[in-house]
Amino acid sequence: MPVVSLLQCDTYDNDVLKERICRSLALTGFDLSRFRDARVVVKPNLLMPAKEDKAIVTHPEFFRAVIQIVRENGGMPILVESPAVHSLERAIKKSGYADIVESEGVTVADPAKTRILTFDGAKKFKHIDISEAYFDADIILNLPKFKTHGITYITGAVKLLFGAIPGLEKSKMHLRCSTPEAFSEFLLDLYGAMNYGFSTPKPIIHLMDAIAVQEGEGPGPAGIPRRLNAVLAGENGIAVDYVAAMIAGLDVNKALTVVNGFARDYGVASPDEISVLGETVEAMRVNDFVPATGGSIFSNMFRWPFNTPFVKNLLLDRPVPREDRCTLCYQCRKICASGAISESSGRIKTPVYDYNRCIRCFCCLEICPEAAIEKQKGRLQWILGG
After folding, report:
1. Distances (CA, A) of 357 to 143, 167, 175, 372, 384
2. What domains, with CATH codes, occur in the chain?
3. How far apart, in whole angstroms, are the C-alpha atoms of residue 55 and residue 12?
4. Torsion of CA 276, 282, 288, 290, to 10 degrees
5. Can the peptide bond before residue 77 be classed as cis, meaning omega within 30 degrees of 0?
6. pTM tops 0.85
7. For 164-180, what is each residue's pLDDT tens digit?
8. DSSP states of 128-147
9. 238 φ, ψ to 5°?
């Protein structure tokens, strides 16, 4: 039976955080002595360069507390991350991590070095290219930031492992998996590979920063920061994500990585198998959490042919840049796997979208540093209740 530790925490104070994280690990049955002489990969959410008050990245003080716990118990921490567009160096510097990396003596893995991880139990993607550092790790600490997400409904422990894939290769996966269902199934193939694909299985501990989180159109600058005041931990990422969604008062049935994760039985087949220790879900639950709106019309009810550009443009959300916010940095164009974005021309002061080519992955919205891209409904989307 998977155990999820759920503790109340309303501060990023170092002493409090370390106490909560150590207690969380103890509740899940993890002995800190396992860190001794271990190479410990620490994987935060560094989606993009972002200040801590935006709740886009794993809070730097949360990262610091974890690093110190590993160090104090004889482990060697290794930061592993690969932002979608920006360089890892810039993300570390602009997100408040540089001081911690230097002062705590953290090794930073080269995101360009990759190896193929094979998992024969995957549904579709049996060979996935990931950061080489995972192969050399003794223990993996996954540090998700809980946020809403326009495609996967929530982003947490399962989704964070997407960061094991190098840089712009992520956008190619969006192109290959262009619906929420397909993308979620890919994430579960990756999750299965990380848990069962290594020749020697590696323990993966998920320590979730759910203190300051995001609601609304997460997981990037368009999301709205709010407090959930929780720290979660567990060895089963699907179980951790389920509990996080429950305390946020969200509709777990819309979180495909959780629902389909139960169906795959990766260590947990239903909510009834999850043991929550520490606080209760009922005591921590909020009732006014705002979900993302993206992907709502892709529910299992609608499997008719959206593959023609004409129908897509009438019935689906589309990303639209705002002239009053856009700075023409073209990060959107850089990440667009389908080549649907071109430079502005003439009187148009924003990047130009070819919606016939756009696959509606909304990576551009997610990565835009100015939150200058919004979802605009298709003209006939009301037919689907969207």
Report:
1. 35, 22, 11, 20, 22
2. 3-284 (3.40.50.11440), 296-384 (3.30.70.20)
3. 12
4. 20
5. no
6. yes
7. 999 878 888 887 888 89
8. EEEETHHHH-SEEEEEPEEE
9. -65, -40
